Amino acid sequence: MEIKLASHEHSIGYHSLDDETDDKWCEKCTEKICGAAYACVKCELWLHELCAKAIQYLPREITHPLHSHHHLMLDWSGPAAPFTCDLCLKISSGTNYTCCRCPFELDLVCAFASSDDHVARKKRQRSNSERKQTMQHYCHIHPLVLYEYSNEGEHDYNCRWCDKPLTGIFYGFPPLAKHRYHRHPLLLNQPIREDEIGEYYCDICEKERDPTHEVYYCQKCTYIAHIECVLNQEETSTKQDSSSSPPISMDAKASELKEMEQTETILVRPVFHKHPLKFCEVTENLGERVCGACRLELSGPGYICQGCLYILHENCAKLPDEIQHPLHPQHHLNLYATSTSPDQNICDKCQDFYFGFFYLCEQCDFKLDLKCATQAPSESGRTTLKESERETELFHFTHKHKLLFCNFTDPLVKRQCNLCRLQIFGPTYHCMSCGWILHESCLRLPQEMQVPFHSQHTLTLSYTSYGGCHACSLKLLPSGYHKSYNYGCKDCGVNYHIACAISLTRPLKLDSHMHHLYYFGTDFDRFFAMYRDFIDIYAGLFCSHCGEICSGQSFYRCLECFINFHLECLSLPQIIKSKCHIHPLTLKDSYIEDDSEEHYCDACEEKRHPNHHVYYCEECPGIFVAHIDCALSKEEVVSFLVPREMKKRRSWTRGI
């Protein structure tokens, strides 16, 4: 029995599980599955029967008239965390539609409401807006905010004045609030002391606050504010607008601040850093000298926190709190320090992840990192053909949410690809909902592939929690190490690391050995280095000729004899004459024609890795480049031009 989810590309079948041996969890409610369930085995998606039928007809993606500039994505996974619907303003939980680019969420009722319902809701919101949004009642010390009651959860609430059940519109104090000058929800919290220095500030009004008073606090970043500053938004907005108008250019503000603080040696700006910063000479003794604002290396004069070694360039410490930028002329952009949750910190201009300071329009959720905020749009460079053709949003079979294109270039922050487990640096695709991240190259990995060494069956990309790799003989990554994705044969039960499976696509047959040899290059070397660092420091693959370890360079491996050879130990001919090209070809450790990131073998016309060994024509620079196995194929090789010092080695390898 199968059903089709509107939000999943494959049909899901009904499967029975053995409760003692099968550990499966529902992707919707995250509870363990007992008995039978619906599953897409290819994608490792498991759902309770009730959970599957609850979302069966919900589309994966919708366009809503109140948020037409971005698509809204179905979010049905994980525990039912409460959220505030941005249309009806009711607190809801569970399945919803959310924007993958900005913090906009709708409950299911509002997501599929008719146009008449939207009109009625707008009228009700207009009538509510005519009421006073906040009021100060003598029964409570803090201002009370206008709400619409939603009976969400197990408890009903009574009015604290008349003790009757709450219905409809009411004034209250529900602990979760939003403020236009901060993008995350703020939670009413007990008194907070960030440290023991004794100076505590409100991040809205920037005035000193009493650490014994309750505050509104952001759980995602260190943003703390007075209760009255959060609730009295209109008053706060008026003060900030009046203080910042007329707008002044960034250069003028920076020079003005520099003149005002030129002689100051202590800088106190709570928006930047919670501790005072001292002006001094930054030396190499500090270790990693990266500015907390621009994330560039700092050398020379700057501001430093002597308590936690937080440092800023002198110019970065004097950045204006507000700028007007030509990329977003309709509103001012306000300066923010980085949050501790970087999953949504992507610059809207360059698509770079940023971990330093940034400028934000709270109304539009428009963000610029310091690089783009401090330069004119014309200085940011032209878009290449590859960049213009690149998909900026897409779905991938390994993940249920939409992935967005971005660049990961921070020198200090380390993130690993959820597929290959290697470090992310450069072009990547990222989920802003849960932080799932993939190399752009891993995104192109096939869900199914066939390799010559295992030609009888198809290998499928899925996660495996135990066993070893049939190619390199090393263990698979343990199940506790996030999800361990590997290529595996479901018929034979053999598994391969991703880096190893890619290495099996091009076999090489030489007269010097009876079996095919497989090239393990750059990708495997990076994987092997990670494996030794995090999994098994004693793991090693050694050359059968010289006895030295094979890490740090490319090598060939026989999967039947389980022996390895460095390329120089295998005595590959340095220069050959082949039928596939008119001139002699020279062995090179790598060749990159240009920066297009598209590299092909001119013999078989298939893609090749730019950092792998190739045969190359020196008489036709950039015209002819070929895989080693293509250039050495028996049908095409006419003669070898072998250096004299290699002939002795060849006589040894023939005996293998």
From TrEMBL:
<feature type="domain" description="Zinc finger PHD-type">
    <location>
        <begin position="290"/>
        <end position="351"/>
    </location>
</feature>
<feature type="domain" description="Zinc finger PHD-type">
    <location>
        <begin position="25"/>
        <end position="89"/>
    </location>
</feature>
<keyword id="KW-0479">Metal-binding</keyword>
<dbReference type="GO" id="GO:0008270">
    <property type="term" value="F:zinc ion binding"/>
</dbReference>
<dbReference type="InterPro" id="IPR004146">
    <property type="entry name" value="DC1"/>
</dbReference>
<keyword id="KW-0862">Zinc</keyword>
<keyword id="KW-0863">Zinc-finger</keyword>
<feature type="domain" description="Zinc finger PHD-type">
    <location>
        <begin position="542"/>
        <end position="605"/>
    </location>
</feature>
<dbReference type="InterPro" id="IPR001965">
    <property type="entry name" value="Znf_PHD"/>
</dbReference>
<keyword id="KW-0677">Repeat</keyword>
<dbReference type="InterPro" id="IPR046349">
    <property type="entry name" value="C1-like_sf"/>
</dbReference>
<dbReference type="Pfam" id="PF03107">
    <property type="entry name" value="C1_2"/>
</dbReference>
<protein>
    <recommendedName>
        <fullName>Zinc finger PHD-type domain-containing protein</fullName>
    </recommendedName>
</protein>
